[in-house]
Amino acid sequence: MRNTLLLLLLCLFLGACSSKRHAVLKSPSHANGKGGHGAGNNGNSSSNNKTGNKGTSLSGNAYIDRYKSVAIDEMNRYGIPASIKLAQALLESGNGNSFLAQQANNHFGIKCGGTWNGKSVTRPDDNINDCFRVYNNAEQSFRDHSTFLLRKRYEKLFSLKKNDYKGWARGLKDAGYATNPRYPELLIELIERYALYQYDSGERSYAAEEKRIEKVEHLIAEKQIEEPVAATEIKSAVVMTIYEVKTGDTLFAISKKYNVSVDQLKQLNGLSSDSLSLGQLIVITK
């Protein structure tokens, strides 16, 4: 009888420890109710799939978490808002899932024109066998995208503040980076959906801003001498079909309308569910 009582007490003690241990293990992903794309998030928490923002996905958040520091470095060097760099990369690379991003570390679709003498890969684009640059890593692709923008046609953009993502979004369209009239709105929607503006920062002083602008102007002047190649030979303007969600629309209906799969639409737009919002911009093709 005594042995039976001791065994029963031991079982109750172990059961209480087990329950406590499970409670401790489950708490981090729900601490403070935070998750998703916060600046301190490492992209590994399951809470990324439960963020309250419409349209965000683990793929998009993981991509941002991986490359946000690279985008910030480029912003501090040249003045391109980190939010703009990340939004363009998300679009161009399909959250890093495109063939060029996966096989060539090319996240912005930059071609072989100009002084490029590195590795390359051919893919159908404007022509059946267009030549695209292959980079050793994604960081080289981000830097080359900054270098691509160091052209006269984009010069006015560098006089904008480093945290003026709306000015940059509209300026890129006006300078001919994209042909779709909704391109600025699409970038701005991505930036605000993922709160990418949190990675932007302005100069601490007017003198610092002027110094950065002068440096970029000098680089642009040098580039015109060294590489007098039309930007379109290195990167054709982004051509996109963008659909604005109307009352009663579903992802399935949109996919049938444009003859693409629901999975393709999800990947291209970083969607984790089938839910849509009125007025939401959906990228159909690029």
Walk me through this protein's architecture.
The chain has helices at residues 2-26, 58-78, 82-93, 99-104, 138-149, 165-174, 183-193, 206-226, 231-234, 251-258, 262-269; strands spanning 120-123, 130-133, 241-244, 281-285. It is mainly α and 286 residues long. It is globular, with a radius of gyration of 24 Å. The model is unreliable at 10-58 (pLDDT under 50).
Number of strands: 4
Overall 3D form: globular
What amount of the residues lies in strands?
Answer: 5-15%
Unreliable stretches (pLDDT < 50, length at least 5) are: 10-58
What share of residues is helical?
40-55%
Biggest beta sheet summary: 2 strands, antiparallel
Question: Which structural class should the secondary elements be placed in?
Answer: mainly alpha
Enumerate how many helices there are, as a single number.
11
- Radius of gyration of CA atoms, rounded to a whole number: 24 Å
The average pLDDT score comes to: 77
Task: Write down the secondary-structure element order.
Answer: HHHHEEHHHHHEHHE
Q: Strands across the major sheet, in which order?
A: 1-2
CA-CA gap between termini: 77 Å
